[in-house]
Amino acid sequence: MYLQDILPKMSKLYLGRIVDSFLKDVHMDTEEEMREVILKNIDEFQNKERVKRYLDFSNEQRDVTLLNEMILMALMEKEGYLLSESDLYKEVEGMEREIVKQGLDDDYINRFIENDAQRIYSSVLDEAWKKDESLNAHEINILNVLRNELDLTKREHYLLESRIGRFPQKGNVLHTHQQIGRSLINLQTRGLILRFREDTSYYIIPKDIARILRYEMGGELRNEVYATLLADLTVTQLKEILNHLDFNISGVKEELVKRIIAYNILPSTALKVFSSKELTDILRNLEGTKISGTKKEKIQNIIDYYETLSTPMSSDPTDERARLYDFYESLAARDYKSLRINKIIEKDIQVDNYFEEATRYIFELKLGVDIMEMEGTRHADGKVQFSPSEVILWDNKSTEEPYTFPEKDFKQFLRYIRSEKMRVTLFLVVVQDYTKEAIAQSQKLKAFSEEDTDVALIKAADLAYVAEQWKNYSDQKEPKFNLQVFNMTGELTRNILLSRMDWALKGNQKV
Question: What is the pTM of this model?
């Protein structure tokens, strides 16, 4: 979920923590004021430099630093970067317990960490910890440099720390719920995770910053996506990975994939087995990826490619258009890489048609509105009845950059409005984003329509939000969508849509 999807579910206390993370000395009395100021400053929230700055935990106590990293890694492993509060505590405890267990297993350590790297790093690590009960910023920096030189992951650092009785705490003692709770607050005040409540309490990394965070932390793949990567390799390659680490190589492909994941062989560790040429051959089969670079860069390119994968399951297997709806924003933004990786399109030309199909799916299935047939081929992308004598038309415009509402589209839409037999009360333009010029063009089109036709711009993400949330605003036992939600000129922002749903979807309203 994006930040704007999460904000309505958050209470004042947790909204305040976001505000404090990037806006200082700003006082607001109500939740609505907080949500409004956050959305107005969303660019600052999404700013890469802000995220990188707040990922620097060097000034925090050791326990807070370690738990911050554990919490973020636990969330990054999950689809949607989301966990319930109780599950998050269990995940962190489980991760710590597993690292302690594996760190004390000589056979496991020797399989995954080369002897020289293990010997050198362990010596420096042990010496750093001998001084006192903590590591200072200078010692941490030296260890980070050495870790990078020896090509060790952060997880391997933890494994070696556990062998000297220093992970997660002295004597390999696990962290308490109280300590985890303090880190959860710390991460919220940094604006890296959010807390909201539905049927229970949840923590989430907003989609707005998830990829920045994953890249900066050197995050690897979720298991379900990792399984897809492994499944795309040959049986010979899978056996090569297992054989290199001295694991059993017998069995069919499915068993080999499960074994690699079960033994916690990280994607980077698995891919490191292959030569630079073999990695290049793998990349050649991954459309849109960069093939050149160092071996380390090639490994990261492969991981980045598969990170773009979403869930292979459709939100509604009974309707083939649901899969298009699941990638609605990608279609609107012409995100060819994501659409190809997830096997939504085979050719770029399919984007426009699929964007239109997904929008019809929203109106017909999500909003429950009957779509009217249109004659010929020169017409808007969709039409629905608004009143006995009026209709609403909509048109989809997918663009990689914010939509500018060019003159050719202005003339096209004007022709659609004037050629319609019934009065067009609203012409809706669905885009991924739009410019200020586009808003001005919508007002101009209303004036030129000669029928006082409202012309509204709506982002695909916001239309999808309405599709998912509108029933929550209705007080009817059998909710019926009211098209008045869209019936205005200008930009249909998230806040405006929330306000219009609030009054238009009540059963006693006569609109």
Answer: 0.69
